[in-house]
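Progress note, sequence design subtask.
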């Protein structure tokens, strides 16, 4: 049973995939932290920019690993991740150098995450429901053991 209770992740964005839901929650919490920090400090510290980029990379690596374990072609989804990471890395550098507005970037990330979860990441909960046998296990059991179902 999944006892995940989101604090920052809107309930309609919960996938029912504990590993991904936890990471999505952490990313939204990190954005809230960064907004508050930037309001207080009036800039984005380089270490926080690096931490955000690392969290994004780690999350995308998790999604790609789970898709691979499910036997899914994830190439288009992975390309979206790469394009987003390149854009965010470039903009974070500009923000740290005070050549771009941090709040515009944070608003973009909020929007991008929500849209991406709704339009792209739902693949994990839908495919888990119809997942074929994996290593001789029933679909629901394979998803549960891989963290793909509650």
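Output:
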């Amino acid at each position: 049973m999944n006892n995940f209770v989101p604090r920052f992740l809107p309930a309609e964005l919960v996938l029912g995939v504990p590993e991904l839901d936890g990471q999505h929650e952490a990313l939204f919490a990190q954005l809230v932290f960064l907004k508050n920090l930037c309001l207080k400090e009036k800039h984005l510290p380089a270490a926080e920019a690096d931490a955000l980029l690392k969290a994004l990379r780690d999350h995308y690596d998790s999604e790609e690993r789970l898709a691979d374990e499910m036997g899914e072609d994830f190439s288009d989804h992975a390309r979206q991740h790469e394009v987003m990471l390149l854009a965010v890395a470039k903009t974070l550098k500009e923000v740290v150098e005070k050549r771009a507005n941090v709040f515009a970037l944070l608003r973009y990330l909020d929007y991008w995450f929500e849209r991406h979860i709704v339009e792209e990441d739902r693949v994990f909960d839908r495919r888990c429901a119809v997942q074929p046998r994996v290593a001789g296990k029933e679909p629901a059991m394979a998803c549960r053991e891989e963290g793909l179902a509650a």
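The CA atoms of residues 31 and 106 lie 7 Å apart. Work on this subtask will continue into the next period as scheduled.
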